[in-house]
Every structure is written in C-alpha cells, then in structure tokens.
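Morning, I've got a small favour to ask if you have a moment. It would help a lot if you went through both lines with me. I owe you a coffee for this, so here goes:
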Amino acid sequence: MRTLYIVAAVASVGAAWNKPSDEPVILRGHSAGVTAVRFSPDDKWLVSSSLDGTVRLWSWPQGRSVRTLSYGAELYDVAVSPDGKLVSAAGDGRSVTVWNAATGARVRQIDVPALRSLSVTFASDKQLVIGSSDGRVRVVDVTSGRIEKEIKAGQEIFAVAVSHDGRYIASGLPLALWDAASGARVATPRGFAQGDVAFSNDGHWLASGEYTGGGRLFSVPSAELKSRLATNEEKRIQGPKGASTIEASMPVTAVAFSPDNRVLATAGGDRRIQLWQISADGASEKPLRVLEGHSMSVTGVSFSHGGESIASSALDHTVRVWPTAIK
C-alpha cells in the first residue's frame, strides 16, 4: 500500500551518467492519487493503480491511456505477471482482481479473508503473493483462486516482494524474509518496510522503504544491514524563540532496483526521486541524481526492463516517466 509518501532514488556502479533533460513524460487520466506503477516485461506499456478505483494501461513510449479496468474501491497496489499477460490489483476490498492485459477481461476474482489487501506481486505467471491488513501473506494459485500457503507475517502487510529465482518472499510490517517453498522465516532484517520492499534481480540485495525515514539496503540471505539511505529535507519551524531550520527525515514508500542491479531508486514524502549507486559494499552515501517535478508524495517507482526509463506515480494524480541516462 503506497498512499501516503514517496521518494525515489537510483544509483549506478561503474555506469556512465549523462546529464539529460530531467523533463519527464507526464501521463494524466486518473481522477485521484496514483498509488503504484509498473512497466510491462516488454516495455511496451505501463500499468498504474489509483485511489479512484481504477487500473489504467498506458502505451509506451506513446504515453496514451489505452485501457481502464474498474475495481470500484480504492486501489493500493498493482502487479504484472512475468509473461505480461495478466494484471492484478489489491485495494480496499475483500478480493484481489486479475485481468487479461490484452483484452481487459476479468480472469479471476480472488476472495481474501481480510478487510483489505494492501500489496500484491506475481511469484510466477500462475501464482500471486498477497499481503493483507490481517498481517498475513497468502500465496494463491491464479488458475483456481485457491490459497496454497498462508504465512502469519506480522501486523498489516503493506509490502511484499518475491526474489527473481522464486526462493524468497519479503514482507513488511515488520520486515521479514521467508522461504517461499516452506513458509519458514529465514531472517528478520532491521527494518519495518511499511513503504515498500524489493529484491535486486541478481538476488544479492533487499531494499526497504521506511516510514520512519530513509531507505535501507540488506544483503541476502544474511539480512545484514549494509546501507542506510538518508532522505533528509530542511524544514522551517516556528518555535517560542522564533523560526528555526531543522533537518527532517522523510518517509520512503517506494524502492526499485535497475535491471543491471547497479542502481537503487527510492521515493517518498519529499516528492523527489533519488538515484543511488550500488557497489559490492552497498549504496553510495549521496544520490547520483535527484528527479523533481511531482507536487505531492511519490507512491511508486518502476524501472523499464531495458533500463532506459524509470516511472513514478504520485498522489498528484499523475504518472511520470523519466530518462535514466545509464550507459
């Protein structure tokens, strides 16, 4: 669930960063805050979820809204299957919906025994992982709608992710690492991941977005904390002795790795997207680039699979697609 804050960051190890125009392509059409965004596997379209109760598919690079899928209630997260054929969304209802991406037909409505489902991702073309408000992670067979596995994972599960090899599931709140096959806890990293959680494609890293401020980078499977990504912002406050400036740690509610694992994007309440360099030792102390333009909290970030672009969603009702300038 990414409805409150967001800051995006991206980093590159040994990558050449040209300084292109930071002007993004802006996608408009949602009538309320956009809560998540994902590129399709072939990078020919994007999908976004919104508090307006709809999912929108956008052609890329044309940036046109080509299909609107109705859920009804507020939506908090959206996912695309690895083969690009299915789209799924979770929100303020007792079901998670799966649609055919090409036709918009409803393929499956999965009833979840929880008040709300807050997060969703595909473990494979046939399997969904759902995080819900009752603190449980559920692994569901898409074809039958049957719940195959249920993990009592914590409090409200705002974020879920599955490693590229399918071996691990990560969930938050609190942040935990699970064996996907058995459902056993592997590790408890030092984080909450109320905002988001993501694995690098090579499986070496796990990133979390923290409402208490900043992003965190952990090694997998040891769950050793390697880096804290500071997302501080200066704030003017009025006190008994007049105005003063403080440094506030801003919430991070979206994280994503570049396809080559060399860059981490974080996003959150300061409305910025920050790009961080990843090396064998962890993340850079300062972001390599900061993308600014959203007028409200950023809620989602997604790299194109070719690595040329990064999409962001925000409560300002827009999706923006930025050039990464990685070579």
